[in-house]
Design brief:
It is a single chain. The protein has about 140 residues and is an alpha+beta fold. Helix content is about 15%, strand content about 25%. The chain contains 1 helix and 9 strands. It is globular.
Length: about 140
Amino acid sequence: MRALGMAGISVSAAAVSSILSSCESTETAPSGKTFLWNISSVSELAAPGGFKERVIEGLNNNRPVFISRISETTFAVFDTTCTHAGCAVSPPEAPGANCICPCHGAQFSSRDGAVLVQPNSGSATNLKSYRTSFDASKNELLIYT
């Protein structure tokens, strides 16, 4: 009888494991909105190191975002508003240069929006960023909110 009970538990455990793994494989979209953007016509993002400032309808309250191409398949998208005093951060002047806030001198990484140099007074945090995925076969960037 005890052996029969143990067999029932292992069948149940196997069934539960199967159900859980099937849930994991079908879970693909995070909560929130997604924005699909075909980058084929954006020459600035054709190669790693590329950088573009752009308004994407509905994203970031219709304020501009910075899009940085990190590698062939990796992108970073982040807000252009300084977290110190709300000023518009300037895009980098050259590939690999920092994004600089003209109001108080804060500097942010052009790769991910991380604060690198604090403003002259007060402090800043990293720029708000958005998760992304990229479909290279379609040249489409998917941005998640």
